[in-house]
Write a structure and sequence with these properties.
Its EC number is 2.7.7.13. Pfam families: ManC_GMP_beta-helix, MannoseP_isomer, NTP_transferase. Belongs to the mannose-6-phosphate isomerase type 2 family. InterPro entries: GMPP_N, Man1P_GuaTrfase/Man6P_Isoase, Man6P_isomerase-2_C, ManC/GMP-like_b-helix, Mannose-6P_isomerase_type2, NTP_transferase_dom, Nucleotide-diphossugar_trans, RmlC-like_jellyroll. It is a single chain. By secondary structure, the chain is of the alpha/beta class. The protein has three domains: about 280 residues, Spore Coat Polysaccharide Biosynthesis Protein SpsA, Chain A (Alpha-Beta Complex); about 70 residues, no CATH class; about 100 residues, Jelly Rolls (Sandwich), CATH 2.60.120.10. Helix 3 packs across helix 6, helix 3 packs across helix 9 and helix 6 packs across helix 7. Helices cover about 20% and strands about 35% of the residues. The radius of gyration is 25 Å and the shape is globular. The protein starts with a strand and ends in a 16-residue tail after the last strand.
């Protein structure tokens, strides 16, 4: 009988060092940074074709902010999944504990493969081979971690020290975990040859993890069990009980359990390290992304409308406008609709300092792009001025905005593609291409797409106040709250 394997994908990070592409409401795992698929989609497909294993649907651990985008991205690649929403962040150990509780039952005790959603792996075959080695170890009740062969004295990763080989498994004894080192220490690790980068990928049986977390942090297991037992189903999502999960201690898989394995705690199962040589990167910074992507003969990486002259080892991304670079080396230039980043690659780690400044100034560029995704589609605020705002709105086939009204603004809708079904007060009617309609302030209304092609409209808002918190929501098919109280929410 084939062993059961449940992928557990952790998708709660924000990837601030990849600003301005990565934002709080649309982080790096949702972006197509290396090819046409997002990092999340690539992670979900990483086990496709794995032989001799019964791979189950993945469990995705995420939060409120990304739930609809995650569901849509998985739908596009035909991946059924269990999406569990954390009401607050508690790090990776509680996330894994929730996944283990969700995956196990009286009948099943599957092997869990825990993967961050925002990493890249270029050699899928080699990765699947390593997974098969890990499964044989997990079947023998071991806690398995995967260590990446280092090829540089990287100071941005944690390290794992290994010992002797474990029989013929291809795995190594786990000696210890070490924190991100300085450059001299990282160079010493590289020369020693027995240190690996900590990939953040783990594997074990669900019952083995629950037993280990009970031994190390019983209060964490108790809080997670209560949060899972009292979880509610909201459409396609499982919502953990907020008060119970908030009481859970915050800790990482490494600190909570894995470091104690390295101390040879006899109360815990044995640990093992499976080496990885799979083209792995956590793409934590712009220079890491530059090293991951194919480069031309001058070492340059470009995307979008970019022109370079006399440039070397430069990454230049354009999202909306022409980006022209002349005579620069080892630089990062990233253009989005509302922000431009220019940085030297050696200072790529310090992009986070800009993010910190944006937070201090409460600037909107920290949270979202100009283009905002919603469960029904997306909108792009293309122009704004005193008492007016212009949006481009795309509604997916069969989707609908909430039934709502505004106290301070009126709206004009012009259909440029598809057919709109409009509810205005007690009337429902169709608006076709090149036609328009008007929604006075204070009137309940709804926009729907009854067709089979995306509906695209231009919305012109006018009024004394145009904030996104001026929404009174009466009804919503996506289960969103009816009272909108902040500018982070929308129709």
């Amino acid at each position: 009988m084939k062993p059961l394997l449940v992928p557990v994908i952790l998708s709660g990070g924000s990837g601030t060092r990849l600003w301005p592409l990565s934002r709080e409401q649309y982080p790096k795992q949702l972006l197509p940074l290396t090819n046409e698929e997002s990092l999340l989609q690539a992670t979900a497909r990483r086990l496709d074709g794995l032989e001799n294993v019964a791979v189950q649907s993945p469990i995705i651990i995420s939060n409120e902010e990304y739930r609809f985008v995650i569901a849509e991205q998985l739908r596009v690649i035909n991946k059924k999944s269990t999406i569990i929403l954390e009401p607050c962040g508690r790090n990776t150990a509680p996330a894994l504990t929730i996944a283990a509780l969700a995956a196990s039952s009286d009948e099943y005790d599957p092997v869990l493969l825990i993967m961050p959603s925002d990493h890249t792996i270029t050699d899928t075959a080699a990765f699947q081979s390593a997974v098969n080695k890990g499964i044989s170890l997990a079947d023998h009740n071991m806690l398995v971690t995967f260590g990446v062969h280092p090829d540089a004295p990287e100071t941005g990763f944690g390290y794992i020290q290994t010992g002797t080989a474990l029989a013929e498994s291809g795995a190594l004894q786990l000696i210890r975990f070490v924190e991100k080192p300085d450059e001299a220490t990282a160079q010493a690790y590289l020369q020693a040859g027995d240190y690996f980068w900590n990939s953040g990928i783990f594997m074990m049986r669900a019952s083995i993890w629950l037993s280990a977390i009970h031994e190390c942090h019983p209060e964490m297991l108790e809080a997670c069990r209560a949060a899972w037992q009292q979880a509610t189903i909201d459409g396609d999502f499982y919502r953990l009980d907020a008060s119970e999960f908030a009481a859970c201690p915050s800790n990482s898989i490494d600190y909570a359990v894995m470091e104690r394995l390295a101390a040879n705690n006899p109360a815990l199962p044995p640990g093992a390290v499976v080496p990885l040589s799979v083209g792995w990167s956590d793409i934590g910074t712009w220079d890491a992304l530059w090293r991951t992507l194919p480069r031309n003969e001058s070492g340059n990486v470009t995307r979008g409308d970019v022109l370079l002259h006399a440039c070397r080892n430069t990454l230049a991304f354009s999202g909306h406008r022409l980006v022209a670079c002349v005579g620069i080396d080892d630089m990062v230039v990233v253009e989005t609709s509302d922000a431009i980043l220019v940085a030297h690659q050696k200072n790529a780690q310090e992009v986070k300092k800009i993010v910190d400044l944006l937070k201090l100034q409460s600037r909107p560029e920290i949270r979202s792009h100009r283009k905002i995704y919603r469960p029904w589609g997306w909108y792009d605020a293309v122009d704004v001025g005193e008492r007016f705002q212009v949006k481009r709105i795309v509604v997916n086939p069969g989707a609908a905005l909430s039934l709502q009204m505004h106290h301070h603004r009126a709206e004009h809708w012009i259909v440029v593609r598809g057919t709109a079904q409009v509810t205005r007060a007690d009337n429902t009617y169709l608006v076709s291409e090149n036609e328009s309609t008007y929604i006075p302030l204070g009137i309940p209304h709804r926009l729907e797409n009854p067709g089979r092609v995306p509906l695209e409209i231009i919305e012109v808002q006018s009024g004394a106040y145009l904030g996104e918190d001026d929404i009174v929501r009466f009804e919503d098919r996506y289960g969103r709250k009816q009272d909108v109280s902040s500018a982070t929410k929308d129709s």
